[in-house]
Design goal:
alpha/beta, about 600 residues, Rossmann fold, about 45% helix, 6-stranded mixed beta sheet, 20 helices
Length: about 600
């Protein structure tokens, strides 16, 4: 077994009170792909910062092999002092690193490099930070929530990129599908202690449940043993004093262990407040159009959403998901078309913009709107401290300012406020951001079992697959289509449609010389394909097929994770070739389609 590049052993950290970390360990070797998982507030980000050298532990050993390079992706990257994104990204390069890789990453992440950091959105900031840590291809990558604020296209690109690079990886993420696709081992941080599973995240949850069941059994056995020892002390036959004192000491140790046992953190209780039933037809939209200047975000979109539907909205950042959602809920008026909302609608909206939170406001004031210490849930008055417990907040946090909460705690707080409002239409814009997996499970159950209607914007593929009844996705040029089922079903339907289109186009391809024979003499005199056009129609399919083969061959070569290390020039040349061939492929396919449509028009 190769020696570790980085090792953390018996790490402890306390800020007073209960230790955040008491016996945490991480060992990272070459080619490791480690998922670091645990509840919100369990110390995952802190442990990653200790590994990166930004925080010193109270106790324990941190060893990094000499010469090993480490790059750390923080949840909130600091871009202060940089004039452009390119300057920020290049600042992460070492003397021997390739500047070309910066351009490659910026292009694939949808950035030019000339953007000013102060003007970036949350998603753009995350993409710039990713480019900075990926560009030098370090020995170890420490990634804290790399998929936050990324759209699905970028998440899937990032998965492919992480599979190809040579760096060892430790990643924290709430995105199950992402962790399943990139991890080969899992470290679970629970109550300050780490446990390691030498399998990817796909096997983690079953293993975790078994560990907790065994812990519960062991605690039950300890309780029974304490009862037996106490009975012996009271009624047992007197033995030698020394032996009795030893057994008494053992009993005291067992009592201390039982008393100080920290049980697993409780589960949040998520339940939407009931509202009266809405009408059967919740939303009817006809021929919606919305444009900003020359940019058309929605073009001729129609849909009917019935009571009980759970509709997911997916697509790249900036495609218009939030715009379409705002029109469907009556918040934003369309330029053309109309939206009719059903009867008896009571809408609760979870906005993705957590920046709108008043960070100086206390949790209690936020949940009650500053109106005393009670909140109305399902028509019943509850003390805010009791309601907060359902969302894993402690009573002592009542007067805590929101600014002191973690990202996951802020997400739970916003959910708590939304779910307290009576609703039969839930509008959830990126509800899964920063939530831990246990809370995600409960949110999934709530959405799946909600008696009303749900409109859901999310980049979490697993969450979409488990909850939605249909998916609305952009098809380009402002066109949106609705697909039955979840995200995986949408991909399958798109693939089937593409294959069917390709078969139709192949079937419609004329044999050489058949165009002239098919046209009547009169029509041929009026209009016909030129020799050049006919020749292109016959030869383009062969060129397109050859390009598909070439691209597949080059991508196979690029899939070698050692290629860049062995021959950086060849790697860069291969990337360039793929880009050029894809551009040629797109040009040929567009040209052939136009000629085919022209041929059909001429033939009537």
């Amino acid at each position: 077994m190769a020696p570790p590049l980085l090792r953390l052993d018996q790490i402890a950290l306390t800020f007073g009170g209960t230790p955040l970390l008491s016996d945490a360990a991480i060992s990272v070797s070459e080619n490791d792909r480690i998922a670091l998982v645990g509840r919100n507030g369990s110390g995952k980000s802190t442990l990653l910062k200790i590994a990166a050298g930004f925080i010193a532990p109270t106790d324990g050993e941190v060893f990094k092999h000499p010469g090993v390079t480490v790059r750390y992706l923080a949840q909130a990257p600091d871009m202060e002092g940089f004039a452009t994104v390119r300057a920020y990204v290049e600042a992460g390069l070492g003397p021997a690193d390739d500047l070309y890789r910066v351009s490659y990453l910026l292009e694939h992440l949808g950035l030019t490099g000339e953007e000013e950091p102060d003007n970036l959105s949350g998603g753009e900031t995350r993409r710039a930070a990713l480019a900075k840590v990926l560009a030098p291809q370090p020995d170890i990558l420490l990634l804290d929530e790399p998929t936050n604020h990324l759209d699905l296209t970028t998440i899937e690109w990032l998965e492919d990129e992480l599979r190809q690079i040579r760096s060892a990886i430790v990643v924290i993420s709430h995105d199950r599908r992402f962790l399943e696709n990139v991890s080969r081992s899992t470290i679970w941080l629970d109550r300050g202690v780490t446990k390691r599973l030498d399998q990817g995240f796909g096997s983690f949850e079953e293993w975790r449940d078994k560990v907790l069941e065994e812990e519960e059994r062991d605690l039950h056995k300890l309780g029974r043993q304490i009862v037996r020892e106490e009975h012996w002390l009271r009624y047992g036959v007197t033995a030698r004093r020394k032996r009795n004192m030893r057994r008494l000491g053992d009993l005291q140790s067992m009592r201390s262990e039982f008393r100080n046992h920290r049980g697993a953190q409780g589960k949040a209780v998520l339940k939407a407040s009931d509202a009266r039933e809405s009408g059967k037809l919740v939303i009817e939209a006809e021929h919606l159009v919305k444009a900003y200047g020359d940019r058309v975000l929605v073009n001729d979109f129609s849909t009917r959403i019935q009571r009980g539907n759970c509709v997911g909205f997916v697509g790249p950042n900036g495609a218009g998901k939030t715009t379409l959602l705002s029109m469907l809920t009556g918040v934003l008026a369309p330029d053309i078309g109309f939206v009719k909302l059903g009867t008896n609608l009571e809408i609760a909206i979870l906005d993705q913009k957590r920046d709108s939170l008043n960070l100086e406001q206390t949790l209690s004031d936020y949940l009650t709107d500053g109106r005393g210490e009670n909140v109305i849930v399902n028509g019943e008055q509850r003390h805010v401290a009791s309601y907060m417990k359902d969302f894993l907040f402690q009573p002592e946090q009542l007067r805590t300012p929101i600014r002191e909460l973690s990202g996951g705690e802020r997400a739970r707080l916003m959910l708590a406020r939304v779910l307290a409002r009576p609703a039969n239409l839930l509008v959830l814009d990126e509800p899964t951001n920063d939530l831990d997996m246990e809370t995600l499970d409960l949110l999934q159950e709530l959405v799946a079992g909600f008696a009303g209607t749900v409109l859901l914007v999310s980049h979490d593929r697993d969450f979409l697959d488990r909850t939605v009844t249909s998916v609305i996705a952009p098809e380009g040029n402002g066109r949106w289509l609705e697909y039955a089922g979840g995200y995986t079903d949408m991909l399958a339907q798109r693939k089937e449609a593409a294959l069917a289109t390709r078969k139709e186009l192949k079937a419609a391809k004329p044999a050489a010389g058949s165009v002239e024979k098919a046209l009547p003499a009169q029509r041929e005199e009026k209009r016909k394909l030129s020799y050049k056009q006919k020749f292109a129609l016959e030869t383009l399919p062969g060129k397109i097929e050859a390009l598909h083969v070439d691209i597949a061959t080059l991508e196979k070569k690029l899939a070698d994770p050692q290629l860049f290390a062995k021959d950086a020039a060849l790697f860069n040349k291969t990337v360039d070739e793929i880009g050029k061939k894809r551009h040629s492929l797109e040009t040929y396919e567009h040209e052939w389609l136009e000629l085919e449509m022209l041929r059909e028009e001429i033939e009537g």
